[in-house]
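Schema walkthrough. Field components (list of strings):
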Amino acid sequence: MPPLPQDTEQLKFVIVGHVDHGKSTLIGRLLYDTHSLPASKMEEIRKASEDLGYDVEFSYVMDHLEEARSNRITIDTARIWFRREDREYVIIDAPGHREFLRNMITGASYADAAVFLLDAAEGIREQSRRHAYVLGMLGIRQIIVLVNKMDLVGWSKARYDELCADLGRLFEALKLRPLMMIPASAKLGDNIASSGANLPWYDGPTVLASLGQLKAKSAPDAQPLRLPLQDRYTVEGRDILVGQVAAGRVSAGQDVACVPSGLRARVETVEMFGQSRRDAQAGESVGLTLSGDGQAARGQVVCPADAPASSGTRIEASVFWLSERPFSIDQKLRLRLATQQVACTVERIERLTDSSTLELLAENAQSMSAAQVGHVVLRCERPVAAEPFKKTPELGRFVLMRGHDAEAGGIVFAVGA
Amino acid sequence: MALTKLDELESRSIFIIREAYQQFRNLALLWSIGKDSTTLVWLARKAFFGRLPLPVVHIDTGYKFPEIYEFRDRYSRQWGLRLIVGRNERAMAEGMSPAVSKLGCCTALKTEALKQTIAREGFEALLLGIRRDEHGIRAKERYFSPRDRNFQWDYTNQPAELWDHYKNSYEEGTHARVHPLLDWSELDIWRYVLREKMPICPLYLARDGRRFRSIGCHTCCQPVASSAATVADIVVELATTTEAERAGRAQDKESAYTMQKLRAMGYM
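Field assembly_structure (string):
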C-alpha cells in the first residue's frame, strides 16, 4: 500500500487584475499544466485543442454559472485547488467588474499572496490600479506580477520593459513591492509551468516556480496574547469562555486582562473537548475558565495583564467604501472589530481618494461612494479594543455595517481616547 | 509546533459554529448522515464540549439506504443528539418518486420537506456541511448565506464577508445557511475521519469491489468501482484519483444546470 498523504501546507492566493486581462485563462492553464482537472475534463480540453489547434478556451473551466457563461465574466469569489510538490494551492478567483468589488475584496481578505495580472497590449487600466490599492489595504505583501498576453505584442522585450516601468511607479505610489515580474502567455503556456520558446530574453522563474517560493501566512505566535471572546457557555455547572486565539499563546496560570473592560483574572484551565491541555496557540479555538467572578463576555479581548491591547472611542483609519449606496457623514454605522460590535459615527473624512486613479478627491469630505477610500476619524459609542493594523492585524481591521449589510472595510492607524 | 492544515480547518469550523450559535436563537444542524455532515456533528460536539445545545435535522425521503437509518439512530443515541426528522408526508403518500421526475422528487421530498421543517420549528438558521470543492456552484458560497422568504439564493448579489465578519443582520423573513466546512476538501474530510477515528456510515467502504463516494437515496446513488475497504484505503485512493466526487449522483448528470437550479430553489 502506498504511504498515506501527509497533512500538507496550504497556500491561498488571489488572482487580480482588470477584466479580460486573462484571469480565467490563467486558472484554466494552471489546472491543466498541473494535471489537476478530472480525467474527463482533460480529455475534453485535449479534444478541443485538436479541433481548434492551440487556441483553447481555458477559461470555461471556471465558468460554472449560466451568468458567467453568457457574460463571459466570473461573477463571484470562487475557489479552485491544485497540488504541486507537497503543497496545496488554493486559487481565490476575484472578478474584475466594478460592481463586483465587494466579492473581490471578500476573496482577497483570506489570501496569503496575490498574482496581479496585466494585459501586455492594454497596459494599466482602472481596475489594475484599484486592485493594487486593495492588495495594499488588505496588507497582502507577497505579490507576483504577471505581464500576460505577451503573444499579442510580438513577445517584445521593449514593451515588457515599458510596462515594468509603469507598474513600478504604480506600486511605489502604494508603497508595495512585488516579489517578481514575469512576462507570460497564459493562453499558450509560456512561463506558466515551463519557460516555453518565445521569451528567450527572460531568464527568471515561471509562475509555478514563483508560487513555490511564497510563504503561507501562519498565525502570529511570537506576539502577546490576543484572544477575542466569542461566547460564554455553562458546561456541567462551569462557566467556559470560548474564542479563537488571534495572536500569541494562552496558558493555564497566566495573569490576564480583558480589554476594554479592564477586568483582571487568572486563567485557571485551557479547555479543548477530548484533550487535556495546558496552553493553546494562535489559530486555535479554545475554551478558558477564569478565576474570580468577573463577567467576561463576548467582545472582550483577553490579553496578558502586562501587555494589554489599547482601547478607546476614537479610531483613525482608512476606510474602503464597498457599497453601491453612498455614505453621508450624518449616517450612523456599526463597527465590527474582532468579536466587538459598537455603534459609531464618522467624525471627519480628512481625505477622500479614488481607488482607481489614486487621485485626491477632497479634503474634509462629507460623503463616500463605492470604490472611494476615506482617511477618517471614527467615534465609537463606547471604548473598543483595537490596535494599529501594522502591530496586530487581527485587531487592526474592521467592517462598517449600515442597516443589514457590511458596507465598508477598514484598517486602523491609531486608537485614542 | 505549528498547526497542521487539519488543525486549522478544525479550529476555523469551530469558530464558525460558535459564531452561528451566538447569533441565532433558533439554530439547527442539518445531518444527512453522510461523511460531511457527520464531521460537522463531530465538530459541533467539540465546539460545545460534548453536548449539542441545538437539534440535528434529518430530511428523510423514505428512499434512504437502510445503513443510513441504522447509523442515524445509533449515533444520535450515543451522542445524545436531539434528532428532528423532516418528511414531506403528503408527497410521500401521493407516491412521489424519482420515476415520476428526478428534479420533482428532490424538490418535493428534500427541498419542500426542509421548508416545512424550518417553518414548523421556526429555525432562523441552519448549519450545513457543504464544501467548496464539491461542485462548481458551491465554490460560490459564503460562510453565512441568507435565503429569502421564498428560499431563494441570490448568488449575484451576495454580502461582503471580510475577515470572518459574517453577516449578522437579516431582513425579516430570511433564514441563514451557515457553512462551517466550506474550506474543507473531500480528502481533508477523510484524513480527519481517519485522524479522529470518527465513526462513518459503512456504505462508504468497499464491498465486492464497489463503494459509495457520496450517499443519499438508494434510487439515485450509484457506487463507484473501488477496493478501498477502510478509511485509510479511501485516503490513499482519493490522493490519486481524478474522478469527480459526485460522479455517481444522478441529479448532477441529468442537466448541467440541475444542481444550480436546485440550489437556487433552496436545495441543500
